[in-house]
Amino acid sequence: MTIRTAGTGAEAENATVAPALMRAAVHTRYGPPEVVEIKAVPRPVPGENDVLVRVHATTVCAADWRLRKADPILVRFINGFWGPTKIPILGMEFAGTVESVGSVVTRFGVGDEVFGSTGFKFGAHAEYVYLPETGGVALKPVNMTLEEAAAVLFGGISALHFLRLGKVQAGQKVLIYGASGSVGVFAVQLAKHFGAQVTGVCSTRNLDLVKSLGADEVVDYTKQDFSGAGQIYDAVFDMVGKSGYSRTLKCLKRGGLFVQVGAYGGMLSILAGMLRGMWVSMTGAAKVIGGVATAAPGDQALLKELVEAGKLRTVIDKRYSLDQIAEAHRYAEAGHKRGHVVVLFEPASR
Ligand SMILES: NC(=O)c1ccc[n+]([C@@H]2O[C@H](COP(=O)([O-])OP(=O)(O)OC[C@H]3O[C@@H](n4cnc5c(N)ncnc54)[C@H](OP(=O)(O)O)[C@@H]3O)[C@@H](O)[C@H]2O)c1
Question: The domain that contains 208 carries what CATH number?
Answer without folding.
Answer: 3.40.50.720
